[in-house]
């Protein structure tokens, strides 16, 4: 399947920059849509460009390995319908038509590809209805379309699945008039309408739109399923704010290293001030969410990055408990440190070994009642560190050693009893 | 695709027991073949039984959830060709024909299903040629077949892929004579021949065959790819001998628990005699291979079993080093124990986390030069334990702490540099 991408508009409200190449949450608008389409079976892109942006677009698409054809619209003033018409000889059968300045979340595109006609949204949560193109639908087909309809059924998402027939009508209109907008062709062809409601999609018209889209994309990139209690109720309230600030400036690997270094710092601060070290350790736990959020939001996830992040987390956890033990435990108390470190590690080990064996997350099937996930452990450790002027750190090791090992035993029993 | 299974023979040389239900290496002969065929797309089995074994076979196949039809041969004395002829109305198109007393390894069956005609073996390593059915092939077709051919091309494996045409010739022969053997039909039909050489397959005729097949199956179940140096050159020389003794008596989970208990015992013996504890720990390492061998040989592998085995290994490793530390380390030396335990765990953790993320074994792509796999660590620990009257155990912790952590750092660098 091919996709036609209209990029011939002049970005007047964006200060004349090339709109499809504007970075939103760390990735160019056009990259976002094309990458998702490509991952879902679209194998060639017909890019309708103008004389100004054609070179920059060509260079960008080549660098990112997309299979594409550039068609230059020499008369962009003839309207979006005319631009679209230029793709006529490059498509066949069923094809996708999208706007080069629209952003869609992956679930939207995946579902839209199963439908046909104009994809509309009856519950558009993320779009300014005032500015949007509205559609009046009768008997499942477009009856009227435009920005200023008073009576309308739903919002035009700018995502179409069309067939070559549409060009007969396009040609007729283009022969009749000088300026033809895409909406006129759609209305004249009485394109059928399918709805996909409530997904995130937006057209990017102003710098404010860029900011708003970034915020939404970062929030949607917060991974939910596997978070512990502290992560859900504290860490993930703060980390997206940091991710939003950093996403245009750094790559995920930088965030991984930053969180690692803050973790190492917290371990060293143990010898200077235990309460302060506890706070820094908790900060590193919050920062630990940032790399994943940036990676998902900027479509830069990598398996190596995920593996490295987990591995470095284990170093931080080990070093912190070891420094705390060196600083605070005497004589045979250190056996507790062994048990605490062992238990902490076994929580991570058993869940990863499970994922390797069963090819799914441990937490998809199991919800242990004993707490002990990393975010929960770190928060508990911070509490004890803050209380250290009054409560001996020895008791922290007692609690961690007992709780983590109990949790591992619970996990073992669950897996054996459920037989997976 | 359907499969016809001839089970109407009377097991005269096996003391009249029901041959397809004889356990070889912990699994019934017929289960082995049917399970592999089922896993490779055969969806129904036509079982030709006799009056004596029909009830036992029905019960067994029902209990194991196979989809099957039983056809009872009331006149088994009319020969194997007559038995086969009874399946006529139950198959269509292309179908498999196998003998109920044959064992085939999975790779043989997987490849045979892609071929057709009589599958022969020109390089039969596992079969007594004296006793085997020989085939003379000309122009790719059976010219002569029988046990007593002097001039022959290859050995009949007892595995056929046939089409319904064969029954025309079978019917003709059965109308002509009272006793018709399968080989007569095959010869008369000039069935085409395909060869698969060197795979393990056997027909089970005598109690000695059962023993021999068991030995071969257990040896073939030794997992090679991920073993460390000590495992390859010591542990895996001994563990198959133990597996062979135990496979008819115990399930894999019992072997897991046995190896775990021996590991726990070795930890406790630390307080009594360190050299002895080292030896017992090494024995537990050898036993650690038995559960997997039994599971694969007896076709009883389970993900839960694999997960539990790894988890219990971590307990044994932790407990042994902890007991050794408690017994031998003083004052601040115990920091070494923390590093040794951490490093040992991180070797396991990083490889499992890798497998969870990349969906393949760490060792498929990486061959770290620093040693440190579990079998290697345990062997080193045993050596130090044996030398403990002369060398302080303190140095064992120094070596383990350094080597394991070096190995983890090497793994991290490898993954980062290779980007996976």
UniProtKB/TrEMBL annotation, chains A, B:
Q: Which residues form the MobA-like NTP transferase domain?
A: 3-111
Molecular function in Gene Ontology: nucleotidyltransferase activity; phosphotransferase activity, for other substituted phosphate groups
The membrane-spanning stretches of this chain are: 253-274, 334-356, 377-403
- Please list the reactions this protein catalyses: 1D-myo-inositol 3-phosphate + CTP + H(+) = CDP-1L-myo-inositol + diphosphate; CDP-1L-myo-inositol + 1D-myo-inositol 3-phosphate = bis(1L-myo-inositol) 3,1'-phosphate 1-phosphate + CMP + H(+)
- Per the UniProt entry, the Enzyme Commission number(s) are 2.7.7.74, 2.7.8.34
What's a Pfam family in this record? NTP_transf_3
GO biological process annotations for this chain's record? phospholipid biosynthetic process
Its Gene Ontology cellular component terms are: membrane
Q: Which UniProt keywords apply?
A: Membrane, Transferase, Transmembrane, Transmembrane helix
**Similarity-based family:** Belongs to the CDP-alcohol phosphatidyltransferase class-I family.
NCBIfam families to which the protein is assigned, alphabetical: IPPtranDIPPsyn_Thcocales (NF041135)
The protein in question is named Bifunctional IPC transferase and DIPP synthase
């Amino acid at each position: 399947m091919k996709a036609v991408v209209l990029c011939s508009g002049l970005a007047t409200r964006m200060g004349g920059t090339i709109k499809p190449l504007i970075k939103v949450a760390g990735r160019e608008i056009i990259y976002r849509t094309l990458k998702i389409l490509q991952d879902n079976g679209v194998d060639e892109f017909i890019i309708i460009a103008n004389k100004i942006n054609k070179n920059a677009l060509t260079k960008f698409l080549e660098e990112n390995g997309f299979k594409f054809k550039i068609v230059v619209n020499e008369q962009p003033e003839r309207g979006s319908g005319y631009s679209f018409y230029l793709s006529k000889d490059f498509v066949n059968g069923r094809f996708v038509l999208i706007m080069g300045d629209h952003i869609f979340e992956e679930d939207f595109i995946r579902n839209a590809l199963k439908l046909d006609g104009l994809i509309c949204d009856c519950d558009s949560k993320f779009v300014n209805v005032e500015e949007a193109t509205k559609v009046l639908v009768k008997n499942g087909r477009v009856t009227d379309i435009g920005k200023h309809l008073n009576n309308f059924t739903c919002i035009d998402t700018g995502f179409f699945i069309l067939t070559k027939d549409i060009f007969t009508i396009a040609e007729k209109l283009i022969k009749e008039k000088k300026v033809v907008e895409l909406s006129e062709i759609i209305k004249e062809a009485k394109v059928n309408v399918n709805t996909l409601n409530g997904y995130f999609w937006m057209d990017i018209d102003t710098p404010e739109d860029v900011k708003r889209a970034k915020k939404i994309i970062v929030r949607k990139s917060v991974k939910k399923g596997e978070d512990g209690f502290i992560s859900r109720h504290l860490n993930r309230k703060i980390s997206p704010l940091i991710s939003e600030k950093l996403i245009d400036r750094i790559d995920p690997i930088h965030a991984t290293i930053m969180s690692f270094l803050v973790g190492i710092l917290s371990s060293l601060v143990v010898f200077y001030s235990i309460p302060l070290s506890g706070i820094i350790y908790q900060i590193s736990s919050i920062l630990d969410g940032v790399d994943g959020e940036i990676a998902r939001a900027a479509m830069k996830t990598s398996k190596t990055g995920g593996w490295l992040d987990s591995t470095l987390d284990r170093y931080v956890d080990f070093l912190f408990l070891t420094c705390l033990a060196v600083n605070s435990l005497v004589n045979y108390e250190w056996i507790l440190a062994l048990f605490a470190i062992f238990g902490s590690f076994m929580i991570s080990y058993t869940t990863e070994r499970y994922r390797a064996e069963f090819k799914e997350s441990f937490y998809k099937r199991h919800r242990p009642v004993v707490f002990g996930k990393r975010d929960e452990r770190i928060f508990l450790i911070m509490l004890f560190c803050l209380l250290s002027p009054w409560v001996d750190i020895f008791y922290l090791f007692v609690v961690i050693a007992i709780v983590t090992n109990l949790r591992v035993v619970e996990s073992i029993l669950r897996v054996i009893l459920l037989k997976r």
